Amino acid sequence: MKIYEWLSKGPEDTSSLAQKIAEKLAAKDVLLLEGDLGAGKTTFTKGIALGLGIQKNVSSPTFTIIKEYHGKIPLYHMDVYRLQDSSEDLGFDEYFEGDGVTIVEWAHLIEDQLPKEYLAVSIFRIGDMERKFEFKPVGERYELLCEELFS
Ligand code: ADP
Ligand code: MG
Question: Is the CB of 39 under 6 A from ligand 1?
C-alpha cells in the first residue's frame, strides 16, 4: 500500500493543505484521522470545513461523538474517543453512506464499523510547529485522490 508523506510547518500550513483536499472531496468520502492529543486533528478538520464552505466554527465534538455542519456539502465530524463501548452500533453507516463527507477522529476505536474504503490520515508531532502527515489511501477512489494531490 502506498503512503504519501507531507510535512507541515505550522497550523496555517495544515489548514491550507486541508482546504486543498476539501476541494476534491464529495459526498460519501470518509477520512480517518489518527494522532495523539495536540497533533492537529481538529486543526486539519477545521481546514476541511473551510474548504467545504462551512462558516460555523468547528470544535472537537467533546460530548456529542458526532457533529454535523452544512456547507457546499455536509460535514459529519466524529470524535469517537469517548465511546465507552466501541462495539455499540450508533448507526455510523448512515453517515458514511450519506450525503456528506465524514471525518472520524480516533477511528481505530470503531474498527469493526468502518467502511471498506477510506483515506487514513496519521499526524505525528515532530516539533513545536512541525507535523508529519501520512496519507494512506484504501480503495481506488482515494488512491487517485492522493495521486492528484501529492504527485
Ligand atoms: P488534536 O485535535 O489532534 O488534539 P488540535 O488540532 O486540537 O489537535 O491541536 C493542535 C495544536 O497544535 C493547536 O494548538 C495548533 O495551533 C498547534 N499546532 C502547531 N503546529 C501545528 C501544525 N503544523 N499543524 C497543526 N497544528 C499545529
Ligand atoms: Mg481534536
Answer: yes
Q: Tell whether 37 is covered by a domain.
A: yes
Residue with cell 476539501: 22
| Residues by chain with Cβ below 5 Å of ion ligand 2 | 41-42, 60
User: Which domain, by its residues, includes 67?
Assistant: 26-117
| Residue-wise pLDDT tens digits, 64-91 | 788 999 999 999 999 888 776 666 777 8
pTM metric for this prediction: 0.94
What pLDDT score does 137 carry?
98
Query: Is 1 inside a domain boundary?
Result: no
Q: Which ligand is nearest to the CA of 60?
A: 2
pLDDT of amino acid 132: 98
Can you give the CATH number for the domain in which 73 is found? 3.40.50.300
Domain count for the chain, please give it: 1
